[in-house]
Amino acid sequence: MQGDFLLAPLEGQFDFVVGNPPYVRQELIPTPLLAEYRSRYQTMYDRADIYIPFIERSLMVLKQGGSLGFICADRWMKNRYGGPLRSLVAEQFHLKIYVDMMDTPAFHSEVIAYPAITVISRDTPGATRIAHRPTIDQATLAILADTLRARSLPKEPGPVRELARVTNGSEPWLLESSDQMALIRRLEKQFPRLEEVGCKVGIGVATGADKAYIGDFDALDVESDRKLPLVTTKDIMSGEVQWHGQGVINPFAEGGGLVELRNYPRLLRYLEVRREVIVGRHCAQKTPANWYRTIDRITPELASRPKLLIPDIKGEAHIVFEGGELYPHHNLYYVTSDEWDLRALQAVMLSAVTRLFMTTYSTKMRGGFLRFQAQYLRRIRIPQWADVSTKLRTELADAAKKRDLQACNRAVFKLFGLSNEERSSLGGNGE
């Protein structure tokens, strides 16, 4: 048969479904077709990639006891749009096998986000067998396949381990070690989320046409209140802010709407010179009267607020303090707080505890890089600032200012009351 798997009629149910579903972003799917997919598949949520309904349909056509085996991007196991599909698996299926293929040449061509091999059966939920980054050769894979299918695992440690309760409703799957999973669950039960203790997570401005809106701050020939100094990833590579002099055009009035261009002749002249590039953007074509707006609204007050800056993709936590002079670019996430001292918070964000949250919940990219996105940062747990002792507040802030990661860990382990076993699960005792 050849056709659209999401629309074609299928008779009966199946013992096995095996595949590598296509990856197609919603923006590339014609609107009427996308609407039809959404009407048929309950897991088409938020900005779900097309492989999500492929998995849903494949699961729903399994016989009782039947199995699905897919090699597929693992993003849905942790991110926002995968929530409904994770719920479906948790409620009606058994996640039997998960093989992490990060940094593994699973395909002939390189991919940015690594896939995983996932086996899910229409059966009573149970423990999940997990393997990480197998060597791609026939002998290794044959042994791995036999071990994954064995009635029971060998007593001696090997490439496969078993974890109970990996699925938990729509919650992201915790696929790390059992002691780390226990620590995450303990922290989540005991402490509130980052944004529940007076912190705010956001992302910098997306303009849709950086070449038009961004340039050397001093050379941007517009009225002085129509531009802001801009901080980018290039400015914070050293771990401290070293501004390279970039600026961004601000077309927004203080009240929130766009400024009247007739009141800003220099801004009008600047934009008109670049009009062709600016009106070519989707947002400009959608609302032609507002052709000169940036995709995101710019609020100048953000520039004047102290903040922590975090690049999206990074191998380790790269948390930089900015004192309240620069506006963040869209490749930077930021954290502000009305309650927590940002230097103390920086120590928490630089610690092994935050690294555990990111490793657990973030999708991993080529080379082991993590995505420090808002949806993952918001999962970090932290005490109320009022519950932190004066001595510990000073210890946290001093460690961050010195960028002493061991000192950050020591202070943060005290902050969360980590036991020796929990400290060991993070790779150190904090002493």
Explained architecture:
The chain has helices at 31-40, 51-60, 83-92, 138-149, 178-190, 210-213, 265-273, 275-279, 282-286, 342-350, 352-361, 374-377, 390-402, 405-416, 420-425; strands spanning 14-19, 62-73, 94-100, 115-121, 128-132, 161-163, 199-203, 214-216, 227-231, 246-249, 307-311, 313-314, 320-322, 327-328, 332-337, 370-371. With 431 residues, the protein is α+β, with helices and mostly antiparallel strands. The strands form 4 sheets. Strands 1-2-4-3-5-6 form a 6-stranded mixed β-sheet, covered by helices on one side. The chain is built from 15 helices and 16 strands. 31% of the residues lie in helices and 18% in strands. Helix 10 crosses helix 13 and helix 13 (390-402) packs antiparallel against helix 14 (405-416). The radius of gyration is 25 Å and the shape is globular.
